[in-house]
């Protein structure tokens, strides 16, 4: 008669000889059998939760892709302009208003705007031109119609008369397609984040 094979208990690690040679038994006593069943249930629960999270993440990714695919050109243009404007505000944070020279408190979405020397309405092709933009107080930008003459003088002092002259003579026409607007949003979102991190590191080191 063949000698019963010994097995290692999944709970305590001790070797035992299972009764009735049942190959399904993986525990040396009823108590360890119950404990092992609880371990299996816990493992199954963890795996189920992990699978649920993976499926939820996949669903969110697919939803994001669908939303991106459904975005219109005006929506992309709005998002691209918001990313660009934020970068300009961060770039010029701490500098005086390009038009009146005042130094209002720098607040995102607050008193300092991203002003356009040649307005987006009159020169849409310069909407994303960094030379055409500067930090401008809300009073000059919103209530004084951009204070263009003072803006021009401020730009001359900041970037030079030649570059301002280039802006004044730039009457090219350009239509921004969706891929270009996507690139603009991506580029200036990264630039803004990098600038924020660099400023934060400098403040911590100070």
Rg (C-alpha, Å): 33 Å
Helical percentage? 55-70%
By secondary-structure content and strand pairing, the structural class works out as: mainly alpha
Per DSSP, the total helix count is 6
Q: What is the molecular shape?
A: elongated
Q: Give me the count of strands.
A: 4
What proportion of the residues form beta strands (DSSP E)? 5-15%
Protein name: Bacteriophage Lambda NinG family protein
Coiled coil: 39-73
Keywords: Coiled coil
Pfam family, one: NinG
Explain the layout of strands and helices.
Layout lengths: L6 E2 L6 E2 L13 H41 L2 H19 L20 E5 L16 E5 H6 L4 H12 L1 H9 L8 H28 L1
Antiparallel strand pairs: 1-2, 3-4
Helix pairs in contact: 2-6, 4-5
Please give a structural write-up.
It comes from Enterobacter sp. (strain 638). Keywords: Coiled coil. Residues 39-73 form a coiled coil. It holds the Pfam family NinG. This is Bacteriophage Lambda NinG family protein. The protein has 206 residues and is mainly alpha-helical. Among the domains are: 1-34; 83-175, no CATH class. The chain is 56% helix and 7% strand. The chain contains 6 helices and 4 strands. It has helices at residues 30-70, 73-91, 138-143, 148-159, 161-169, 178-205; strands at 7-8, 15-16, 112-116, 133-137. The protein has a two-stranded antiparallel sheet with strand order 1-2. It has a two-stranded antiparallel ribbon with strand order 3-4. Strand 1 and strand 2 form a beta hairpin.
């Amino acid at each position: 008669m063949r000698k019963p094979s010994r097995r290692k208990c999944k709970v305590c690690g001790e070797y035992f000889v299972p009764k009735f040679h049942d190959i399904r038994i993986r525990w040396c006593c009823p108590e360890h059998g119950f404990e092992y069943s609880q371990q299996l249930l816990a493992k199954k629960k963890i795996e189920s939760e992990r699978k649920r999270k993976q499926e939820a993440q996949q669903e969110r990714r697919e939803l994001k892709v669908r939303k991106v695919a459904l975005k219109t050109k005006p929506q992309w243009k709005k998002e691209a302009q918001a990313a660009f404007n934020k970068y300009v505000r961060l770039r010029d944070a701490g500098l005086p208003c390009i038009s009146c020279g005042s130094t209002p408190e720098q607040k995102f979405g607050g008193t300092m705007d991203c002003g356009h020397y040649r307005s987006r309405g009159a020169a849409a092709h310069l909407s994303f031109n960094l030379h055409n933009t500067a930090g401008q107080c809300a009073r000059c930008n919103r209530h004084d119609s951009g204070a263009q003459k003072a803006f021009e003088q401020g730009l001359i002092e900041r970037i030079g008369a030649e570059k301002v002259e280039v802006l004044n003579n730039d009457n090219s026409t350009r239509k921004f397609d969706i891929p270009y607007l996507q690139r603009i949003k991506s580029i200036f979102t990264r630039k803004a984040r990098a600038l924020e991190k660099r400023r934060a590191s400098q403040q911590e080191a100070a």
